[in-house]
Design goal:
The protein is α/β, with parallel strands linked by helices. It has helices at 4-17, 61-73, 92-97, 120-132, 151-158, 166-169, 171-188, 221-236, 279-282, 297-300, 314-332, 346-362, 410-426, and strands spanning 31-34, 37-40, 43-44, 47-51, 78-82, 86-88, 104-106, 112-113, 136-140, 194-198, 241-243, 258-261, 264-267, 291-295, 336-341, 367-368, 385-388, 391-393. Helices cover 36% and strands 16% of the residues. The relative contact order is 0.14. The chain binds 2-acetamido-2-deoxy-beta-D-glucopyranose (5 copies). One 2-acetamido-2-deoxy-beta-D-glucopyranose (NAG) binds next to loops.
Length: 428
């Protein structure tokens, strides 16, 4: 149930929204939506995509081209990557000596742009090269998490005593976020190689920082933020699609979803609003063109598959989650994209992915993007290079976080190439 206040704001928003609406027909090569489908130049556009945040970090064009060629050969039509790579000034010397890609540097309450050869020129190259291989790019503007310089840098530098809430509520932070969004949107606004803009990777009330009192179940904080930012982008760019980049949490969709653990009823934070989104409501926002959600039950529920949890398995939890997002998208009459999912272990992957992907296909998901695409045979740094954090290129293999699938893992690879063939047949 949405609050009266939110309903009121959404109504006011639709009036204001008329000033930030689309104008004119989208240029050729831009993806549009029609009901639950994407369309490209008048034809349906269903896809399997690749997640790769490391691609803009590569320093040689041969590797970039080889990666796109491998994606194309696997039937992939969409790449999702990070449009953020922000550094604290203290990290700059290391970044310079390791040739790390960075777009923003924080050394005060106003970040500085790096649009040079180690900066946005690398993202330019990814967007441009993608087009050569018939691939379109989803670009996320920031991260809920610390990795590659997300929301905590904004909070640290602008409201140092703040909680994670400040990211969504502090006007100075919102204005610095929008200043960055404006740079990227203006840079690629005429490019048909952009599939969509994404407001944030995995917006939650909590990040690597704690939340405060303003972001909690029923506060609608993230919904308001989604609305303001999507309207802002629509004002800059009439035609590219816009989405949240969220994990797809529900709020009060079903009463009291949870599970028993050691004799105690645990309320499920993905359903009770505590995580922060309200997928059903967020998808109705004027300038949110399609829905996104993620699936990581092994991360989210360390307790699943224990005897106490009866038959509530990783696989089954994911199937429910897929079904419910498909229903919600049907209700909103907008496309839905399963844009990240993963399970640990090769055997878990080969058992679970065919079921999850199978159901996503059956429920006519417009897009499916496993986490995450792996590439072998990279020459960057002679085949061995430390990027940042635990991200390494080792013996030519792109970073492996346990979810990475490479072409040599033939059973998993085949799940996705088969699914891509189905989606590509639907795109005629
Ligand atoms: C750094 O990356 C650029 C590509 O962006 C490359 O041309 C250059 O050779 C690299 N420098 C070093 C020292 O590896
Ligand atoms: C950034 O660097 C400053 C010191 O200059 C430090 O106080 C702060 O914790 C750092 N913030 C992050 C998010 O790394
Ligand atoms: C768990 O699955 C088994 C076998 O499918 C079934 O017999 C049993 O009733 C199930 N238990 C619960 C609690 O659903
Ligand atoms: C597969 O999933 C189960 C259930 O979460 C887990 O216990 C097991 O460790 C996983 N296998 C691997 C190799 O990660
Ligand atoms: C596939 O390549 C990765 C990365 O080099 C390696 O770790 C893995 O053992 C290989 N898997 C198979 C099945 O050969």
């Amino acid at each position: 149930m949405r609050s009266l206040l939110l309903t009121l704001l959404l109504c006011l928003g639709s009036i204001a929204g008329t000033f930030a609406g689309r104008s004119g027909r989208p240029p050729r090569g831009f993806v549009t939506t029609k009901g639950r489908e994407f369309q490209l130049d008048g034809k349906p556009f269903y896809f399997v995509g690749a997640n790769s945040y490391w691609l803009p970090h590569l320093t040689n064009q041969r590797d970039v081209e080889a990666t796109f060629r491998e994606m194309r050969d696997a039937g992939i039509k969409v790449l999702r990557t990070w449009g953020f790579n922000a550094l604290n000034a203290t990290e700059l010397p290391d970044a310079l000596s390791s040739n790390l890609t960075y777009y923003q540097v924080w050394d005060g309450p106003k970040w500085k742009l790096n649009d040079g050869p180690q900066g946005l020129r690398r993202l330019d190259n990814i967007v441009e090269t993608a087009g050569k291989y018939g691939i379109k790019v989803i670009i996320a503007f920031t991260n809920n998490w610390g990795a590659y310089g997300g929301s905590s840098l904004y909070v640290n530098w602008i409201e140092p005593d703040g909680t994670h809430d400040a990211f969504y509520t502090n006007r100075k932070i919102i204005s610095e976020y929008q200043r960055y969004v404006r740079v990227l949107v203006n840079r690629y606004k005429n490019s048909p190689n952009i599939f969509a803009w994404e407001l944030m990777n995995e917006a939650r009330c909590r990040g690597d920082m704690q939340n405060g009192p303003d972001c909690k179940a029923g506060s609608d904080t993230i919904t308001h933020w989604y609305k303001e930012q999507s309207d802002f982008i629509r004002g800059l760019d009439s035609h590219h699609l816009i989405t949240t980049g969220g994990e797809g949490h529900f709020y009060k969709r079903n009463e009291d979803v949870g599970y028993w653990y050691q004799g105690k009823w645990i309320s499920d934070y993905n359903y009770n609003g505590q995580a922060g989104e309200d997928f059903d409501v967020d998808l109705t926002l004027d300038n949110i063109d399609f829905g996104t959600y993620h699936i990581y039950p092994q991360y989210w529920y360390a307790n699943l598959d224990t005897p106490e949890r009866d038959n509530f398995t990783i696989g089954a939890w994911g199937l429910d989650w897929i079904r419910q997002h498909a229903e919600s998208a049907k209700e909103a009459n907008k496309p839905v994209v399963l844009e990240e999912f993963g399970s640990f272990g090769y055997q878990n992957k080969t058992e679970i992915y065919p079921r999850w992907v199978g159901l996503a296909l059956e429920t006519r998901h417009a897009g499916i993007l496993p986490w995450q695409f792996g590439m072998l045979g990279l020459k960057d740094g002679g085949g061995n290079r430390h990027l940042k954090y635990g991200d390494y290129i080792i013996d030519g293999a792109s970073p492996n976080d346990g979810f990475t699938y490479y072409k040599n893992q033939t059973a998993v690879w085949k799940v996705f190439t088969d699914a891509a063939a189905v989606q590509n047949r639907r795109s005629r």
